[in-house]
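Check this.
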Amino acid sequence: MKKLSLMEVLEGIEDTRRDRSVMYPLHEILIIMLLAVICGATSYAKVEMFGKSKQEWLSKFLKLEYGIPDACTFRNVIKEIDTKKLHELFCEWMKSVVTELTGVIAIDGKTARRTKDASKRPLHVVSAFSYECGLVMGQLACEEKSNEITAIPKLLEMLDINGCIITIDAIGTQKDIAKKIISKNANYILVVKENQKSLYNDIKLYIDDIRKDADVISSESYHKTVEKGHGRIESRICVISEEINWLHKKEEWAGIQGIGAIYCQIEENGKKSKQNHYFIYSCKGLSAKEILKHKRSHWSIENNLHWVLDMAFREDESRARKDNSAENFNVLRQIALNILKSEKSFKGSITDKQFKCLLDSRYLDKIVNKWVCS
């Protein structure tokens, strides 16, 4: 599949604006907003400031027939864009960027807390994050965390996940979601908690019982890791089993091949805490060591995606909330994050790269030439 430029992608969004007194081209408005976000802009006022300070530079690849829009225009445009279409275009663009998707795809949700107002709930976005390439492959918004159950199948339908392993927290451990994953020639590792009470109790009783068996401990169905650092000791034991003929109603879970648990213990400042994670999986023949690695890949989404969106892009502080503005601004942040992560010529954090983009037009030229115009 030919790599698509962002200019091509954004030109594909239908312009539904009613006010045509001054018609700033829609793709130009979105490109300016995206580049402003890449440079660290966190509000419409800052997007306007970026555009006006960089107008001469922007005119090298944008016509800017009417100049740079003001903050109100940016706000009015972003709130009216068809969010469904923008999500679809984002997924199509990522398919052209990452042509061979492999490994773990972690699906998880995040709430942008300040997007709440008196009439609507805060924006909650479910993202599909590729651990192998460190990029967001797609996302969909839903009203609140409980609505992830309906959002996840729609997101999976938009993605090309053939051969990948999908990891989801307990809210996504649903029979229909397992069936959707298997139907797309992918595998899953799904957390089981007490929202699936019968399944949870069956797995807990069985795995807790075999975890101390000498034959299990000496096999590939058992793996233990211990990590020490910064006054903290973390130990993890992963135990799995593919002997599940006894499992009640297992035929209701498409593709299920095994069950397992990860027993975590953290010791810090003389205090110990324990957590146990139970799960089902469809990837037959994996060892406990491999399963533990895949599970830890899922947990990294907190640091590699959610934390970065909050710390570098200040997502939790965003007050964009009118109509579709919160959701559409979120898509622009995700695109900006993918671009900055993929730009390897400068070694630095995401915030370092944002600052360099703001200061160094040659570096910003490189990003535009690679991702926006080519």
User: Anything to note?
Assistant: The chain has a mean pLDDT of 88.
